[in-house]
Amino acid sequence: MNPGVILASVLFSQFFTQSLIATDWEWRHPTPQGDNLTSVAFGNNTYVATASRGHILVSTDGRTWDFIFTGRTNNLASVAFANGRFVAVGDAGRITSSADGRIWGDHLSPTDSALRGVAYGNSMYVAVGRDGKILASTDLVDWTTHDLGPSLYFFDVAFGNGAFLALDGNGQIRRSPDGLDWSQQSAVEPYPRRVAFVNGRFLIADGYVSSSSDGLTWDRVWVNPGPRAVAYGNGVYIGVGYGGRVFQSANGQDWHGVADVPLSGDLNSVIYSGTQFVAIGDTGSIITSADGNHWIAQDRSVTYRGDLFVVAADQDRVFAGGDFGIGPGGVAETSPLLTSTDGKTWQRAAFPGFSTIHGIALGGGRVVAIDGYAAWLSVDGSAFSRLPESFGGMANSVLYSRGRFHIVGPKDKLWWSEDGTNWNTQSFSVSSITGIARMIDANGLFVAAAYSVANEYSYMLTSSDGAQWTRRQVRRMRAVTGGNGRFVAVGDNGRTAYSDDGQAWTQPEPISSEILIDVCHDGSKFYAVTIGGAILASPDGVQWSEEISPTKAGLSSIRPFRGTMIAVGSRGAIVQRGSVAVPRLEISVGSPGATLKLTGVTQGTFLIESRLGLEQPWIPLDTLEAGVGVRELIDPNVATPKKLYRAVQQ
After folding, report:
1. Which of 144, 177, 213, 304 is packed most tightly, with the most Cβ within 10 A?
2. The pLDDT of residue 369 is above 80
3. 19: which residues sit within 8 A by CB, 6+ positions away?
4. Are 178 and 203 within one domain?
5. What is the per-residue pLDDT across 557-590, written as a single tens digit (0 to 9) for each?
6. What's the rounded Cα separation, in Å, for the pair 231 and 210?
7. DSSP 25-36
């Protein structure tokens, strides 16, 4: 993808703005991304895969994939190569297309219902989805909508032998010769999800494999556990499905499993490109095979597949820790601790434990990690050894401050050490608490978020010396941070709390419907993450805005690192935010025409171009100098439908 190209478009006086460069947040592990992949297509010597966060992967060989941020985060459920273009559909009625798989433009959709399948035939595009919606168009601009009832949910559509077949979740089939007139056919099987036209036949897979040449008469065989998607090539049928299973058949009737499959996650889609099969699935899995028998997991720089729960950093390195899990091929993960010097490239630390890492702290050239039962010490940041000290199975938080490591244990215990080797125990008494979830040292105070299993409330504990503590009751909080003279806590049901002295806490209305699991301060802003993958930012801990997150993985922890932000979460997810703004070409309509404005970029010269329709050449309009004077121009000729604009960095 050209990082210097920004695209915007207008269709029938409807203006859309779309950035073609990455969101501020980018995937660092696994790469190119780790969200579930939903569908894959091949055309123009290019592979395209869609992801559940609305992102797209593109490749010319099926091995090396580029991550494409399309400017929107609506889930994309299906992609097809049709009439010389890739067309993808997804949530909120999203319809987007591309000639090369890299530059995408959204089309005006007649529905906000989720779309789940797309196909092309007889000069007609057809998309199907929830609420009984079937859409048909000859040009991706004018759509005819068929509403077959809100109780119907169409999962897929395919074209072959002169007919479209649309498949609903109850096994019902709708058939149409032109995408406009639809008739109901007999049911084939309960709860099918995918239909494909391969080798002259329709195949429906999900438990049973049903085949038909015309969509009217079906042959059905039981395959358990069966494939959920099928393809044909090199003389064999290939099916993929749950648990990374791959099936093979010579005739589409007799199926057997393929043993040589190098992953355990679900596979959701498969295609044959003419030279190889490519299958995609959950957590960004991609596998390829030339013959359908021997499969290769493509390099995604996967260092760790288990959930990551905590991240911590100093100015030289960053660590992420989590739960031991299951790696490629079902092998147990033995090292739930990763490290990096730049946040981009990660490797395992020599951590011999199998326990879950709950906390990490760096200080004095040493690293201390806690797993709830014991502490682990590293003097060089690479090899860790277990300390003999016991923390009673309740060590939840560790920090380095005031020249010491501090570990919070049970409700009345605090351990501290100046070297991470020799530990001292300090007792304190605070009534009505069960344990401490997180402790920080900020604004001259120790502040701890404590909880009680007896009620829905939590408590904010404050101390100037770590010995004498005071308690304030707030709604249940999970994490706390401090910066710029203010403390901010986050917790269940999207709740936040803030205080300027650690004593009096204000709790505004919830800022999210999800659990806020962690919060930090980077020196200028507060950042919070949710278990649904959302990232929120605030200048003061009161007014919050949501950032564009690149993942749907549940996020567990977030910390600043060398001018960037790093968040970690489920299935080994690590995302990083740099300091580079996202350029955008914004458009507004008025007199005397369309005003194009360049924002989000502070330097560089950009050529503004326009064209009439997707197949027309780009025509130069003028140049804009980013950050110099007025960064906008006016195009008076905006009455033409299907006009697009882009800014190309010179």
Report:
1. 304
2. yes
3. 6, 7, 69, 71, 582, 583, 584
4. no
5. 999 998 899 999 998 899 999 843 456 777 777 7
6. 13
7. EEEEESSS--SP
